[in-house]
Amino acid sequence: MPARPPRALAWAAVAALFLLMTLGNIVSATGSGLACPDWPLCHGRLIPPLRPDVLVEYGHRLAAAITSILLVTTILLTMRRRRSPGVRRIGGGLLVLLGVQIGLGGVTVLLRLPHLISTAHLVNALLILAGLLVLQRPAGIPGPAAVPDKVRRLAVAGLLVLLAQLALGGYVRHTGAGLACPDFPLCSGDLLPRGWLAVAHWVHRWLGMTLLPFFIHLALAARRTPLARSGWTVAALGGLQVALGILAVVLQLPPAVRAAHAAVGYALWGTLVWLSLGTGAWSLAFAPARAGRQPLLEAAGAARVS
Ligand code: HEM
């Protein structure tokens, strides 16, 4: 039996998840989140009424079903073909996250789109995307020997801050705070925001602006390593993301720009996860269980050698 699941299947699962997340943005950007007021049926039916908003929401649910099947197949095949404790740990974790995701999706509709649950639904999807990429970690990835420690530290710090930025972006979207600061660079004509939603928007905006030079710094640090291309891709996506964020505000949130801002945000996350894989930052996840009990740094050192 081949050691790896068909690469096409794994990448199909990644692409399906990416499209599903972007469709999720289009569902709320078009106000279709409650077009199917019930769950799992839609207006009490398997085939819903053919209304545009219902079809957008129903399309998202169908895409979620197909993506879940692709994800479960990829995860189970990977766990069956690569019997390392690390793969089993990540695969098992991904199955749990998938169960949580389906539950959050249902609760989001049944509780009429509570902001924090909708935001948790986005963050959980980002964790599933990261886990799927880690599970697919190809052999021959450069690994830590070829990459300076500085790049590994920047990649890990970048992942943590970016996840917070993406979550905040999801919160801004779900609370409808996209125009809580309707102008740029000021916020309703002021330097500082007034009111909670304007604060959330303002922090998202300026954290995003701060992340851009950080990504350029990461790309410069990685420029003479095998991760140079991933580094410059992260910096380029970061620049595009900031431009789309500014455009979203200046043009008063056109759905196409909102969807593009969401999609580029998810691509930025996936690319940074992929880059961090090449630094060996996830080696501990693949380390044999006993390594976990040793001091973290010592375990990370042992895992890196293996
Ligand atoms: C690295 C930089 C940035 C990242 C990673 C990022 C990420 C995101 C994400 C993930 C969302 C939610 C999209 C969704 O799930 O539907 C979002 C929403 C939003 N972002 Fe950003 N963003 C960044 C920078 C900016 C900047 C610089 C601005 C403004 C100047 C901005 C303005 C907005 C607005 C207005 C929304 C709400 C859009 C809506 O209501 O659909 N973002 N952002």
Identify the notable features of this structure and list them briefly.
306 residues, mainly alpha, flat
Oligomer: single chain
- Note the overall shape: flat
| Amount of beta strand | under 5%
Q: Given the helix and strand composition, which structural class is it?
A: mainly alpha
The molecules bound to the chains, other than polymers, are: protoporphyrin IX containing FE
Contiguous runs where pLDDT drops below 50 for at least 5 residues: 302-306
- Give the CA-CA distance, first to last residue: 24 Å
- Strand count: 0
Taking all Cα atoms into account, the compactness measure Rg is 20 Å
Count of discrete structural domains: 2
Number of helices: 10
**Largest sheet properties:** none
Protein model, in words:
- The structure is a single chain.
- This protein is mainly alpha-helical and 306 residues long.
- It has 2 domains: 1-137; 142-281.
- It contains 10 helices and no strands.
- It has helices at 7-29, 52-81, 85-110, 115-135, 149-174, 196-221, 228-250, 255-278, 283-286, 296-305.
- Helix 1 (7-29) runs antiparallel to helix 2 (52-81).
- It binds protoporphyrin IX containing FE.
